[in-house]
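Re-running the complex after MR caught last week's input typo. The corrected sequence lines follow. Everything else is unchanged.
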Amino acid sequence: MKVLVVDDSRTMRVIITKALAQLGFGDVTEAADGREALELFNSNSFDAVLSDWNMPNMNGLEFLKEVRQINKTIPFIMITTEAERGSVVAAIQAGVTDYVVKPFTQDALRKKLEQRITSLV
Amino acid sequence: MLPKINISIIRLVIWEIDMSTATKHTSELTAKIINPLLSSTRDVFEMMLDCTPVRSGLSLKTKNSPENELSAVIGITGNASGTIVLSVKKQTALNIYESMLGTKAVEIDREVMDAIGEITNMIAGAAKAKLESYSLSISIPNLISGKGHEVHYPTGVTPICLSFESDMGSFCIEAGFASKE
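Corrected-run output:
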């Protein structure tokens, strides 16, 4: 199980990677923005993508749209502060699989990841 | 002989006068964001840092320098424009970093600044979601450190300063907004 974690905050990448490791998923690749993530996505095979929304160079929604041009089914979970209805609708229309709103407790994050990612194993 | 006066009532009256003055002289929008900022700050600290911050003050800012030596600054645009600042002391920043990542830090480095920026991003993002009718967007946080640094707000806007005490240490949220009407 290979997971791509995309966030411009190293702090968030560490928190998400730790939660994945606790669930037994240690094969994680990190990217700091959508552009870097897209390059990695084009040259590697991943089983799931976890991405922030607000990032420099290419934001999470733009990255999601690019991913869906390449792969329509890969689980793509947006982890973001963008909680307004309009943002959630835009992400759903672009093909997001699930949505986690920051802030979250460690337990809530683990549960959400468990629901979406362990089902793929 | 002077009558006995209940000191706590005097404090309450002074507090209410302060609150009233603070909201009267700042822009209407800055006043509107106080409650969303209070609740989003509490939510972020409770969920991400496992502690409940307690508000210790509300005042108008009369100078451009934030209260503490490290500031995370987020710009807001949309049907209103403004700035939200999380201002923390060095030790508060180190405590927040340790709580988020489970690792100790002794100096304010890029990693500590990143953690403070992310906490500020969450506070601003959660407050923005509570002001949905303004269609606001938030910038990526900028971090500024050093005693006496300055943060400037939109012309004519007097920012407010919300002070908090918490298990992480004391900190302030500063904000100033103007609508685009």
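None of the earlier attempt is carried over here. Chain A touches chain B at residues 8-12, 14-15, 54-56, 80-86, 102-105, 108 (CB under 8 Å). Chain A has a mean pLDDT of 93.
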